[in-house]
Amino acid sequence: MNNSPLKFLGVQVNALNILQLNSLVAESITQQKKYLIANHNLNSLHIFHHDSKMREFYKKADYTHIDGMPLVLIGKLRGYSLKREHRVTYADWVWPLMEEAATKGWKVFYLGSKPGVADKGAEILRQKFPGLKIACAHGYIDVDKDSQENQDTIAAINAFQPHILMVGMSMPRQEHWILDNLEQLHTNAILPSGACMDYVAGVVPTPPRWMGRMGLEWSYRLISEPKRLWKRYLVQPWFICKLLIQEY
Fold first, then answer.
1. CA distances (Å), 178 to each of 17, 43, 99, 202, in order?
2. Each residue of 167-182: pLDDT tens digit?
3. What 3 state SS string does 227-239 have?
4. pLDDT per residue over 53-94, tens digit each?
5. Cα angle: 78, vertex 79, 81; to 5 degrees
6. What is residue 214's DSSP assignment?
């Protein structure tokens, strides 16, 4: 797939919609390659410029899709032909991805969420997509690379032999974990997926999809989880404005 990276605000992203992302996952599986498919939003952009390990993670990424309408709008300001469909969040992508996994027999392993949450989400997905092969492990582990718990988790993942590994531990913990363990993971597509399974399981309310399309999803999330997200949505954007002014 010819998808040259777009460069702005010090990062690189690829203009990818859900169909193209599914095609990349399929490509990694059919060609027996390991693809790290990352994503960028305003939160990751802020962390990227303050965390050297996060920058190292994105250097390793084969593709980085856009997960945030502000980045689509900023990209347009920079002259790139970005469309609304190029903003892909896991609240939207998880369903067509799991449907294709069930249809094609791909095995999925999800690492993340609190104990019990991923199992609940996986059962919901199995009911919706009969035949889906999915296994889970919670993300509340000792993520030190050499810890016994971490090594046991990697062993469980590799024993399942997944085609797709989804890691949902929030930023930047999930990216750090993937970077630390990338060489040990035997899988094809690796997807840092945030609170994906929390939404599927209903533990975190999913914003109305029209709000996502309009770029207003942040307001719903802020109202739903003000204590956790106020800084992300009310403070960090000022740093992005500063970056934008410097770039211009």
1. 23, 18, 25, 25
2. 999 999 999 999 999 9
3. HHHHHHHHCHHHH
4. 999 999 999 999 999 888 998 999 889 999 999 999 999 999
5. 120
6. T
